[in-house]
Design a protein that fits this description.
The chain is α/β, with parallel strands linked by helices. It contains 7 helices and 10 strands. 34% of the residues lie in helices and 28% in strands. The longest helix has 16 residues. This is ABC transporter ATP-binding protein.
Length: 226
């Protein structure tokens, strides 16, 4: 089953002579359990494509089906629900809240989802152990290394049991060795059957996925299966 199905997605900004088309007639299908990277240089349209896949933006035309639901024309409230329940986001700069402990950061999406305190705590604790940071539950983000912060961010992304993990340059703020460790964790998640879409400009990072989708000037140029 396709988790992500994009059909003739176009995205434009501005009006009249100032109108700029960033994505043009993009077709893309991602199956459940696939590990895919979207590779492209700055200005290629990959960030816009990520925003549409992540329901952070809507297309100007075309359709986007997430788990067979057409999300391309949903209201803001409905999109917020989709983002909270179906998509786990992992960002380059971690996006952890500094005044919350590590465990509280992981629990946060479950508060918005209305999950009970007991279940929130159990899920967050289990995931913290899963990413190798069980002993860091009560510390704050600034007390962690960059790699540890990204592991917490990955645990937070997983806590709602989303249909899709969406990672935007997840090693961009890390040194090479730490970045390799994070990529190894993504490989473990892929081996467990998680559906992962990773946005990157780094060819070496892209090669670690099973499939590479190349985007250039708003067009998907090729989709390679390794």
């Amino acid at each position: 089953m396709a988790v992500v199905e994009l059909t003739r997605i176009t995205k434009s900004y501005g009006e009249g002579d100032n109108r700029q088309t960033v994505l043009q007639e993009v077709n893309l299908s991602i199956e459940a359990g696939e590990y895919v990277t979207i590779l492209g240089p700055s200005g290629s349209g990959k960030s816009t494509l990520m925003n549409i896949i992540g329901c952070l933006d809507i297309p100007s035309s075309g359709n986007y089906f997430l788990k067979q639901e057409d999300v391309s024309r949903l209201s803001e409230d409905e999109l917020a629900r989709i983002r909270n329940q179906e998509i786990g986001f992992i960002f380059q700069q971690f996006q952890l809240l500094p005044r919350l402990t590590v465990l509280q950061n992981i629990e946060l999406p479950l508060i918005y989802a209305g999950i009970s305190q007991k279940e929130r705590r159990q899920r967050a604790t289990d995931l913290l152990a899963r990413v190798g940071l069980a002993e860091k539950a009560s510390v704050y983000p600034h007390q962690l290394s960059g790699g540890q912060q990204q592991r917490v961010a990955i645990a937070r992304a997983l806590v709602t049991k989303p249909a899709l993990l969406l990672a935007d340059e997840p090693t961009g703020a890390l040194d090479q060795k730490t970045g390799q460790q994070i990529m190894a964790l993504f490989q473990e998640l892929a081996d467990e059957g998680k559906t992962i879409v990773m946005i990157t400009h780094d060819t070496e990072i892209a090669q670690q996925a099973k499939r590479i989708v190349r985007i250039e000037d708003g067009h998907v140029k090729e989709a390679n299966q390794k």
